[in-house]
Amino acid sequence: MKAQAIRFDQTGDASVLRYTDIDIPEPGPGEVRLRHSAVGVNFIDTYHRSGLYAVPLPSGIGQEAAGVIEALGEGVTEFKVGDRAAYAGGPIGSYSSHRNIAAARLVPVPDAVPDEIAAGTLLRGMTAQYLLKRTFKVESGMTVLIHAAAGGVGQIATQWARALGAKVIGTVGSAAKAKLVAPFCDHVIDYTQGNFAEQVRTLTDGKGVPVVYDGVGAATFNGSIDSLALRGMLVSFGNASGPVPPFSPALLSQKGSLFLTRPTLGHYTATREELLATAADYFSVVANGTVKAEVHQRYALADAAKAHRDLEGRNTTGSIILLP
């Protein structure tokens, strides 16, 4: 069957993305054909497009979507035609109207969670789940620092951390974003207005925080290190401002016997059981209202390049979706 997709033949800026027709064969063994109702846009997509994270070319793009199963390949028993399902974290190629995908990569979408929310927030929600509950376990009474609080992961993580009983310091890059995240944070710092690490020290009586969740990268790395308490952990999970430059491990001892980790979602959802549990945990806090997940920007699939430009220009907040 014919479908529409975004492809790119060379790495570069958003102009390399092209909207084209593709052929979709019948699903193979273990696969389903999913008709996408909404497609998630994430910062990692720009890394694939730019070449920061290399992928074989030519390539599709995108790692997250939700939709309805239209056909089953041989051996698929966990799903049936008409089921709602979603996936996040790959394989790449979600910027499309339809695709074949291994059933083992799909998770069921509960009735209480709309397709747009599943498509636009599953990757970010599962990221928040493993960051807060497994990379560094947030517990009641802690104070945590979450960078880019107005971003897709940030808005989910700040709400979830507070529900776990933590006090949340969130950083943002503008007054408008500070206003947006104020309901989710105990303290909001606009890092364009002074040294955020000094403000964190002031807010913690000079002690610093036990954990910093940093998806920004180069621009915040040094300040994140300076915000940590003794034996604190910096969880560096993204490069929105560019990759962290090389540094000597001695820095970690000099700054307080610190820990540094660079986790990825794939390593926390490596088994079917981990994937299902991580997604179910996230969907449960959305369904019960603990986390209010929203889609703030919608673009036509054909306008994927504009979505990338807006995302890289920091002109977006929260989650972004493409509509096939």
TrEMBL record:
Gene3D superfamilies: Medium-chain alcohol dehydrogenases, catalytic domain, NAD(P)-binding Rossmann-like Domain. Its EC number is 1.6.5.5. Keywords: NADP, Oxidoreductase. The keyword tRNA processing does not apply. Residues 12-322 form the Enoyl reductase (ER) domain. It comes from the Bacteria. GO terms for molecular function: mRNA 3'-UTR AU-rich region binding; NADPH binding; quinone reductase (NADPH) activity; zinc ion binding. GO terms for cellular component: cytosol. InterPro entries: ADH-like_C (IPR013149), ADH-like_N (IPR013154), ER (IPR020843), GroES-like_sf (IPR011032), NAD(P)-bd_dom_sf (IPR036291), QOR-like (IPR047618), Quin_OxRdtase/zeta-crystal_CS (IPR002364). It is an enzyme of class 1 (oxidoreductase). This is NADPH2:quinone reductase.
